[in-house]
Amino acid sequence: MVYYALLVGAELDGLTNLQPSRGCDDPNFPYYLKLKCENCGEITAKSTYVTLSEQVDLPKGHGSAHLVQKCKLCGREGTIVMIPGQGTPLTIEQSQKEEKTCLMVFDCRGYEPVEFSFGAGWKAESVHGTPFEIDCSEGEFSEYDEKGECPVELGNLQSTFKVVKKLERGGKTRFA
Ligand SMILES: [Zn+2]
């Protein structure tokens, strides 16, 4: 198994705390991924999605996974398990430093995630505290914050997957 952290970045203007609409661990938020088969190298043509609320039981008491899928080319089965509790929203401070934030960690067997699609169902708030619902599928967003009397904008969405290690310390698990 390999653990992959999904890191996202964006240019935020007057906005902060970009995240899925009910948080990084939003049970119904679909994380859209393109996957590469580790056996034959085939990349899935379409993005598949995983959500925390949808799980599949694995055979022979091997627990459950959020995705069980056979490679269309070689037939090898791969699984993905989502690991909640690791994500934090993207803040304007991170954006200004051109840093990314981790939203979710994926435990992948047989597949490597190679692309993430943002899609709809995001939220952020203005630096004056006004909440905004955001559809990231267009890659940009602009609105006017009535309360702060200033425009707010989002653009230049970026994402990458980083291989991370599981670290256990004092009964707490984190990935870095
Ligand atoms: Zn394959």
UniProtKB/TrEMBL annotation:
Protein name: CXXC motif containing zinc binding protein
Record family assignment: Belongs to the UPF0587 family.
Naturally occurring in which organism (per UniProt): Digitaria exilis
InterPro entries noted in UniProt: CXXC_Zn-binding_euk
Highest taxon in the source lineage: Eukaryota
Keyword NAD: no
PANTHER family listed in its UniProt record: CXXC MOTIF CONTAINING ZINC BINDING PROTEIN
Molecular function via GO: zinc ion binding
This protein's UniProt keywords: Metal-binding, Zinc
Signal peptide: none
Classification via Pfam families: CXXC_Zn-b_euk
